[in-house]
Amino acid sequence: MISISLMFLVGATANSNSINSITTIDLIKVYLVLSIYILIISIMADLRDYDGDRLADIKTIPVMLGYNAGKRVIYLLFILFSILVVIENLISFYILLCLFHLY
Fold it and tell me: Which of 60, 61, 80 is nearest to 70 (CA)?
């Protein structure tokens, strides 16, 4: 999960020299938002597999905290994600993510 967003950061940093308007701070902001987004999706998948993970004794966030607490973690992460998107003016990034999930 983190490796996907880390690959984005490394790739974007390598190309940032050719793009004058993008700074390393901007890339880190997008990396943070992307990491939170991927974490939300991961925990949602863990919630779907809650019963199987619990029976197999796989330590996921929902198994360790409980099903309802896992849902609360998703809600909190989504609120944090939304706040970061609005504060950092990444609305176009958010729209692209929403469109990506429609297909």
Answer: 61
Domain span at residue 40 reads: 2-102
Angle at 65 between CA 61 and CA 66, to 5 degrees: 105
| pLDDT tens, position by position, 21-75 | 566 777 777 778 888 888 999 999 999 999 999 999 999 999 999 999 999 999 9
Q: Which residues contact 19 (CB under 8 A, 6 or more apart)?
A: none
Domain count, the chain: 1
Query: Tokens representing 42?
Result: 């991961």
Packing angle, helices 91-102 and 67-87, rounded to 10 = 130
